[in-house]
Design a protein that fits this description.
Number of strands: 10
Radius of gyration: 18 Å
Number of helices: 8
Strand content: 15-25%
C-alpha cells in the first residue's frame, strides 16, 4: 500500500498531479488546472510554468497546456477528459448511496489508470487514487475490461518476456468467470486491507476502455451485500454510458 508521506511537500505533489493529468488526459487550460488542484490561478500558473521550464509541459497556440517531451508516449485511443467530466456526477451519487469510495479508470495495454475518484465520508476509507496506475490484471476495473477481450488478445498482451503475469492459463480462467458474471473483484491483490469491485462502462470498440469501481476497507466487505453493490455499480456504469451518448454499447455520437 502507498501512503501519502507524513511530511509531504504540497507544491511538489501539485506539480506531479498536474504532470499526470497532462500525460493521461491531454490538454488542459489554466483555469481547469487550478480547479482540479483546488488552488488559485496564480499558483497553477507558477506550477505549469515550472513544468514547461523542465520540459514536462508545453503551451500551445490556443493557450492550453499539453504534455511536454519528457511525458510523451503513445496517445490513448481517445482523450478521457470528457469521460471524466460526465462520469464524476454519477460517481458522486454512487458514493453518496454506498458510503464507499468510487473510482473511474481507463485501461491502456496492461495498465489500469485511475482518472477520477470520489472519496466517501467515513473515517476509515479508501483514499484518492486519481493519477495512480495499477496492473490491469489485478485491478478490479482492469480485470473487468480484460474479460471483454478475446483470449487471443489477452494471450498476446501478456506473453511478452517482461509480462507481469506468471500464470496465464489461470488468468484466462479467471477472465472467463468474470465475463460470465459481469463484474470483477480485487480482494487485496494490489493493497493489503482494500477490496474493490469493478465493472465495465459499455462503449464502442474504438473508444478507450473504461470501468468504474467501488473500493472499501476489506473489513467492510461482506459477500451477502455483493448483489446490491453490483446492481448499483452496473446501473452507474450504464448511466455513464448513456450520458456519453452510447446506447447498448453503440455510439450515438463520439466521446
Amino acid at each position: 500500500m502507498k501512503n501519502k508521506p507524513v511530511y509531504g511537500i504540497e507544491s511538489v505533489d501539485h506539480a506531479l498531479h498536474l504532470a499526470a493529468i497532462l500525460q493521461q488526459e491531454g490538454p488542459i487550460r489554466l483555469t481547469d488546472a487550478a480547479a482540479r488542484l483546488g488552488v488559485a490561478r496564480s499558483t497553477a500558473h507558477r506550477l505549469l510554468g515550472m513544468l514547461v521550464y523542465r520540459d514536462f509541459a508545453e503551451q500551445g497556440a490556443d493557450r492550453r497546456y499539453v504534455a511536454g517531451p519528457l511525458l510523451r508516449r503513445p496517445a490513448a485511443p481517445e482523450p478521457v477528459t470528457e469521460l471524466r467530466r460526465i462520469a464524476l456526477p454519477h460517481l458522486r451519487a454512487l458514493t453518496a448511496r454506498m458510503r464507499e469510495t468510487t473510482n473511474l479508470m481507463v485501461v491502456i495495454g496492461d495498465q489500469a489508470r485511475f482518472v477520477g475518484t470520489v472519496e466517501c465520508d467515513q473515517v476509515l476509507r479508501v483514499g484518492d487514487r486519481e493519477g495512480r496506475v495499477l496492473p490491469a490484471h489485478l485491478a478490479s476495473g482492469g480485470r473487468a475490461v480484460l474479460a471483454t477481450l478475446s483470449e487471443e488478445t489477452v494471450t498476446a498482451l501478456f506473453s511478452t518476456p517482461d509480462s507481469p503475469v506468471t500464470d496465464l492459463p489461470r488468468l484466462l480462467r479467471d477472465l472467463r468467470r468474470i465475463r460470465r458474471q459481469g463484474f470483477a473483484i480485487n480482494e487485496q491483490k494490489t493493497e493489503t486491507g482494500v477490496t474493490a469491485i469493478g465493472c465495465v462502462v459499455p462503449g464502442p470498440t474504438d473508444a478507450v476502455p473504461a470501468a468504474v469501481s467501488i473500493a472499501m476497507p476489506t473489513v467492510r466487505y461482506h459477500r451477502d451485500r455483493l448483489t446490491g453493490w453490483i446492481q448499483d455499480l452496473t446501473t452507474t456504469a450504464e448511466r455513464i454510458s448513456h450520458a456519453l451518448g452510447l446506447v447498448d454499447g453503440q455510439p450515438a455520437g463520439r466521446l
